[in-house]
Structures are given as structure tokens and as C-alpha cells.
Amino acid sequence: MSLFLRNYHFPLLLAALILLFAVLEPVSGQWLRFDRAAMDQGEWWRFLTAHWVHLSWPHALGNLGGLALFAYISGRQSSQWMMPGYCLFSCLMISAGLYFFAPDLNFYVGLSGVLHGLLLVGMVRSPYYTAPVRWGFVLIVVAKVIWEQTGFYDDQALSGYIGGRVETRAHLLGSLSAFCWLVAGLIRNRIKDKGHG
Asked: Which of 177, 171, 175 is nearest to 93 (CA)?
């Protein structure tokens, strides 16, 4: 059990946080969600905390399923310092993107945007899969995100289940945050290799 907790403490901690805030609804959502008017008044913590609260229990549980998939894909890597660091970066990048480039959006909650990025980073960096499996997974996620940006995707299809429409722009921003993180890591490694050369 201690080995399991040590290997997976980050996704377990994040899951516990999501469950706690789900229990504390609606108060947690009112204080932590992406709320443009409140953020305009200086409540900047919402850039980070919006991703920890959800519309409903089905919404939260669906994202917990995605978090479990990330933990399975990443294995022990899911709790290395890089993953919490990436999660923080992704939360802020998604919220900033929605704040500055989606002026029609007044409210937002949910981990799904961050999850798209976590799944991409986790799979690309996973040592447990062959290159064809890793890149095949990445292509599927990217194709899904592109499809969601077209008129063929119905963002209201799950509204009766999760309690609101799917904010597909968060998925796009989460995927872009993964790309930025991975490219930055590649550049950092190249600089490090040159320094040792």
C-alpha cells in the first residue's frame, strides 16, 4: 500500500481534492469556479481553482475516470515533480486562454481541459509503450480535439448528463499547453546536452 501511495500520490491527491469540492458544492463552485466578473474584481485564484470544481457528480466522476487513465498510462511517472508542475502550468494556461480569447465565456469549471494535456504528456513521456502506440494515442486525442472545434461536434450532447455544455476550447487549450510543455522540455534537454558536450 505504501508503495502504491508513493507511486501515485499526485493523481490520488488531485482525486481527493475533486471529491472534496464535489461534496462541498454549491459553495465550492461559487468560490472557486472561473467567474469572469469575479476575476475582473481581482479574484485571481480562480485561474487555478476553476479546474478543481465541477458542474455535477457525473461531471466530476467522468473526469476522475480520465485521471485514472492518466495514472494508468503514466505509472510511477504520474507523481514525479514534472506532472504536478505541468498540471499547474496547464491550469493557468487554459484559464488565461479562456479569459483573454473567449470573451463570451462567463463561467467555466472542470478538469477535462487539463486532462487532455495530462494524457498527452503522460503518454509521450511514458516508458511503458512502443513508439507506434504512443503516437497513435496522441493522434487520436489530437483528432478528437480538432473534431470538437468543427460544426460536426454537438457541445450540448452531454448537457443532460453533466449539467451543462462541453467547453471544447478548454480541451484545445489543454492540448496546446501539453505541446508547449513538451517542446520546452525538449529545448531544455538539448541545451543540457550541449552543456555536457
From this structure: 177
* Helix, strand or coil, per DSSP, at residue 193: helix
Nearest to 33 by CA among 3, 64, 54: 54
Taking only Cα atoms into account, the Rg of the chain, rounded to an integer number of angstroms, comes to: 17
**How far apart are alpha carbons 4 and 114 in whole angstroms?**
23
Residue 77 pLDDT exceeds 80: no
Q: Provide the residue type at 71 as one letter.
A: A
CA angle 85–88–91, rounded 5-degree value: 145
Residue located via cell numbers 473567449: 102
**Bond prior to 26 in cis (omega within 30° of 0):** yes
Pick one of 3.40.640.10, 2.40.50.180, 1.20.1540.10, 3.40.1280.10 as the CATH number of 2-196: 1.20.1540.10
pLDDT (tens digit per residue) in 149-186: 999 999 999 999 999 999 999 999 999 999 999 999 99
Rounded CA separation 24/46 (Å):
16
Give the whole-angstrom CA distance, residue 51 versus residue 94.
9
Quick one: which of 74, 152, 158 has its CA closest to 112? 158
Query: Cell match 465550492: residue?
Result: 28
